[in-house]
Amino acid sequence: MSELATLARPYAEAVFDSAQASKTTEKWSEMLAFLAVVMSDERMADLSNNPKVSLEQLTTLMQDICGKQLNPQGTNLLKLLIENRRLTLLSEISRLFEERKADAEGYIGVSVKTAFALTKAEAKKLAEVLEIKLNKKVHLEMTIDKSLIGGFLVHAGDTVIDGSIKGHLQQLANRL
After folding, report:
1. Who contacts 5 (Cβ-Cβ below 8 Å, separation ≥6)?
2. Domains (range + CATH), the chain
3. Contact between residue 144 and residue 115 where contact means Cβ atoms under 8 Å apart
4. Residue 76 has pLDDT above 90, yes or no
5. pLDDT greater than 90 at residue 3
6. Is 100 in contact with 12 (CB distance < 8 Å)?
7. What is the SS3 assignment for the chain?
8. Residue 7's pLDDT is what?
9. What is the number of alpha carbons within 13 Å of residue 129 lying toward its C-beta?
10. Phi-psi sector, 131: left (phi>0), alpha (psi -120 to 50), beta
């Protein structure tokens, strides 16, 4: 994954800088998310890596799929990625773009896995605590993971907070 991030980072940063200069970050966010979804299809990933498919064929196919979802700059990015055989980086480019966007807007996306669903009050309290700890506004993305047994697992950028029973049991096993 770090290799993908290394390859995708220059594209994401260039797109973000351009989007910020033209005040089109929301449009770019939508376009990149759309392209990432298209490329998440296994068949599309296989086609993009198939040496029997010419760059022209791939460009035509992607433009047909995307239709009016892309503005001219989005189409230029798509052509550049096709030319460099980097279409498979689109999900990582989108992720890195969203990180930069969140940072510029003063918030951080936080993924929270819990063993059981939290009430609105519990989620609000968790968000307040995380805002203090991370010194940023947080946008929570909640998921349920029964394998945690109890507690929670928080991912905020490079920060991981493991307050799960599963995590505590693993730490105990490692110490023994």
Report:
1. 92, 96
2. 2-102 (1.10.520.20), 106-175 (3.40.30)
3. yes
4. yes
5. no
6. yes
7. CHHHHHHHHHHHHHHHHHHHHCCCHHHHHHHHHHHHHHHHCHHHHHHHCCCCCCHHHHHHHHHHHHHHHCCHHHHHHHHHHHHCCCHHHHHHHHHHHHHHHHHHHCEEEEEEEECCCCCHHHHHHHHHHHHHHHCCEEEEEEEECHHHCCCEEEEECCEEEECCHHHHHHHHHHHC
8. 94
9. 9
10. alpha
* C-alpha to C-alpha distance for 65 and 60, rounded to whole angstroms: 9
Distance CA(95)–CA(1), nearest Å, equals: 12
Predicted pLDDT at 103 = 86
**Average pLDDT, rounded, for the chain:** 92
143 strand-pairing partners:
113
What lies within 8 Å, CB to CB, of 123 at 6+ separation is 140, 142
pLDDT over 90 (residue 13): yes
Q: Which residue has the tokens 């009430």?
A: 119
